[in-house]
Amino acid sequence: MLLHIHAVRHGQTYFNRYNRLQGWTNAPLTEDGLDDADRAGRKLAGVPFRAAYCSDTTRAQETARRILSANLTPDRPELVSDMHFREQFYGYFEGQDMSLAWWAAGAPHGAKTYNEIVERFGLGATRDFLKEADPFSDAESDAEYWERIEGGFALIAGDGRLADGDHVLLISHGNTLLSLMHRFAGKGYDLSVRPANGSVTVFDMDTDLPFERALTVVSYNQ
Fold it and tell me: Which UniProt keywords apply (predicted)?
């Protein structure tokens, strides 16, 4: 079956505002972040969602609740929170200033910024380099990250409530949405621009295909 997945980046948090890495840690939504969620809710108010998923972080849950409460269609689905949809885990670098963390990851390889790592080595290297730099080795490697994310999409594909053509709400995270775009988007998307808080990215998901071919990008960062 083909599912239409409306992936929303959660509203702005205080860690977003302070430019700090935020993976599995939680920071509350700012007032702007609540507005981000409400704006996304208005944008998606007429979409008849048959299922709704988010990570088990409070920033994703609060964003999801505000979007679903604004939905004007007759049947609002029950929200499913699951750890498979969490943002990348940054391990020792959770909560640290982003520029300093990416310098620590990239400098041993001659790259001083996140964008430079991506340009020279690919997006997967940002995860592997950060794990190398983590003194506890807790940060997710690229392989560990994708194994978990693929598990989340398997949950959606196996949802018995869904039928061909249904719409699914997914509250996601900035780096995860960017990672999905790098993996599945064709040409014509400016991936130097991170998805904004409260923005909507739409994927069509063919549940009959293996994950590496399952997603087609419909729109990005709207």
Answer: Hydrolase
